[in-house]
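Sanity check

After download, print the first record. It should look like this:
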Amino acid sequence: MIAAAASSHDRARPGARARAIPRWFWLAAGLWLAWVTVLSDHSFWRIAQLKREIASSEHEAERLKSDTEQLEKQVKDPEARKFRAEEIARTQHGWAAPGEIVYRFRGSEPAVDTAQ
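Expected structure tokens:
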């Protein structure tokens, strides 16, 4: 009975119902949400894109570091240096070891070394 009396009392006052949130607020909140997620330089989408670029760059840096270490080992090893020099002389310059016969065909050039 008390609840029924309270509800009839609330109906009597026109401003007693809960205030509705104005439409301009929802519009502003939607625009802000779009700005934060997609449009701004510091948006969630841009941050995710930058994280992917960083991961890719770190992977590339590790690969280059590994390649550099491998090349440094080749430079320090005298046997590897000798082999590499001979390989370059044969492929790029068409040289041959003593006693070898090199056959060249018209219109053909020495093979280009792709291991550089």
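If your output differs, re-run the checksum step. Summary of this record's structure: The mean pLDDT is 80.
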